[in-house]
Amino acid sequence: MDTNQYLEMFIEESKEHLQACNEHLLELEKNPENIAIVNEVFRSAHTLKGMSATMGYEDIANLTHKMENVLDEIRNSRLHVTAELLDVVFVAVDQLEEMVLDIAAGGKGKLDVTDTVQKLHKIETGEVIPVAATTVEPSIIDDTTTQDNWLTYDDYEMTVIQQSVEQDFFTYEISVKLREDCLLKAARVYMVFELLEKMGDVIKSSPTVENLEGEDFDEIFYVALVTTETSEDVQKKLMKVSEVTEVIVNSVTLEQLKKRNSFEVDKVVETSVMELTDVTEDNQQIVEVKSPEKSPTSKNNQVQSSKTIRVNIERLDILMNLFEELVIDRGRLQSISEDLHNSELDETVERMSRITGDLQNIILNMRMVPVETVFNRFPRMVRQLARDLNKKINLEVIGAETELDRTVIDEIGDPLVHLIRNSLDHGVESPEIRLANGKPEEGTVVLRAYHSGNHVFIEIEDDGAGINREKVLKKAISKGIVSKESAQAMSDKQVAELILSSGFSTADVISDVSGRGVGLDVVKTTIESLGGSIDISSTEGQGSLFSIQLPLTLSIISVMLVELGEEIYAIPLSSIIETAIIRSSDILNAHNQKVIDFRGKVVPLVFLENVFDVPRESTDDEFHSVVLVRKGDKMAGLVVDSFIGQQEIVLKSLGAYLSSVFAISGATILGNGKVALIVDCNALIS
Fold it and tell me: How far apart are CA 60 and CA 661, in angstroms?
């Protein structure tokens, strides 16, 4: 079989299964007795094993098989979940991910995993982790028990059950008893079946569905269900149905069913091709049941066809580039229409503007990716760092579904890594110190994302020690970042922002985590290069909050066009507070800097004609046009000649040769064909 056509699918599906393993293992560490979580990890590992065997990646298949064995021991209660056991399993998952990434890069997926395999084998055989005492199994039907309503199964139903068992589903036979005086038995049956179908797949019922719908039964009916739910959960959910007085859920095995039916089922060969096909259907291990008996809900239990498709990101980039050209031409047509004053042309351009506006929203939404793709890496990182630092830390992730443009997503990962490591190392105290300060020994780090207007905010908040003002100032003075005189006049917020300076670190000892003064300055540079900003607030002894503001997208932005002499500049609306017209007499001087009083606050003025050396005749205007912009809690007034108006423009890079031009972040082509430079407001605010 030619597997090359499945390679891209294999890589993507493998990454998703490994991410699922990571998430469920972290959850398992918090709930070590929850076998349902173990089953989820087992299913992901089992599917990955089948896919990799099909594709010919034996190293992945073998390592996954060893990991699967350990998980099987856990779910059969022969092993207890411990941090040491999970350490080894996490290493195995990391190595599997490394092999998948190697395949994605064109490699063969080879890696020396001998040490991990040996450790997994020792765990499996009890050499490292002691074997736990056997716990009581869920109640199982004894074949010697007498029952008048045994469910019997035909060949198809037995095959479905066997395939379900191989995919780690449970098979239950359930008896449901209604009240003797129940008036609407069919309605109660309907509600029971609706619950069952949410939990899994109904294989069989007795009496038949037709008889149940016709209320042709006494108080009790029987159902066979395949599901991932525990018997206790199934029982509790069904007991919630009104007028149901008793629910008995019994686990059954294939051997018991074969013995009961005197029916031998040929062992279904577990081919890897079948597993790969299962994975392509909505990435779920779902049994497709086509029972001749329909449930009262008249729903079919077939796997629903997928409503999504995978598209190579390069195609979206090409689509975006083509649309950007269309936006430029739209601006050109609008300019021509304004000059010609032709009613038909005006109407056509207006319609085109509406359509391209809708198209723009669709294309931008196609490029939006949940920040979950970045956040997913942090629970594992926090767990490992907490163990390395001998700290107890709980990571809370809020708003992982918040979406950002893929370009921003690609760049934001590393800054967040630095900020989270900073919170763990410098922020959250050791358990002993926290207890001594009257805090719980486990610290909390919150990673939060949310939309606000045309921006996305990402926050990292901890309940740690906060930023020590004196310690930061002492280090900043020794590094020459601030003088002793200016240090005393700085606010707590300004002191906190000093930690973003290049080479700054308050760590007393250089470690693998921090102390070299590399990190937070890179965070600031990267975020500002994305058109964003970072804000810090901290209370000593209570904790710190790092807030990152990012644009939703980097390619098409809204700007205010302004004139300087005969040149046009674009100022991003995301930085603008408002515009104003001021008199020359309103301009004051403070510390050799021209300033204005803006609603009780002293705001420095920046004359863009001087910054960009705009050629012009000297004029003494009585009035000045000012664009008030903000960076965090700092403000500035950009003095220009006049305002042209707001417009959506396509942000174009100036290229590597002009990448270091001061206070210019890019350029755009206007409707009249002229080029306008885009002002980097962050560079102008000190």
Answer: 49
pTM over cut 0.70: no
Per-residue pLDDT averaged across 434-444, rounded?
93
Of 422, 429, 459, 461, the catalytic one is 422
Which residue has 């918090």 as its token pair? 30
Known catalytic residue at 16: no
pLDDT digits (tens, 9 = 90+) for 301-331: 333 434 567 677 778 888 888 888 888 888 8
The answer to whether 342 is a known catalytic residue is no
**Per-residue confidence at 332, pLDDT binned at 50, 70, 90?**
confident
46 is catalytic: yes
Name the 3-class secondary structure at 395: strand
Q: Return d(Cα 593, Cα 585) in angstroms, integer.
A: 15
Beta-carbon-side half-sphere exposure of residue 218 (alpha carbons within 13 Å): 4
675-679/567-572 β-pairing: parallel
Place of tokens 């063969």: 108
Query: What six digits make up the tokens of 627?
Result: 């664009």
Residue 125 has pLDDT above 60, yes or no: yes
Q: What angle do CA 310, 316, 321 make, to 5 degrees?
A: 175
Tell me the β-bridge partners of 534.
548
Query: Which runs of E-coded beta strand occur in 430-542?
Result: 442-452, 455-462, 533-539
The tokens for 225 are: 């269900």
Q: Exactly one of 17, 46, 418, 624 is catalytic; name it.
A: 46
- 137 near 83, Cβ under 8 Å? no
DSSP characters over 520-580: HHHHHHHHHHTT-EEEEEEETTTEEEEEEEEES-SSEEEEEEEEETTEEEEEEGGGEEEEE
Selecting among 17, 22, 39, 68, the annotated active-site residue is: 68
Taking only the tens place, the pLDDT of each residue in 133-183 is 333 333 333 333 334 446 777 777 787 888 788 788 888 999 999 988 887
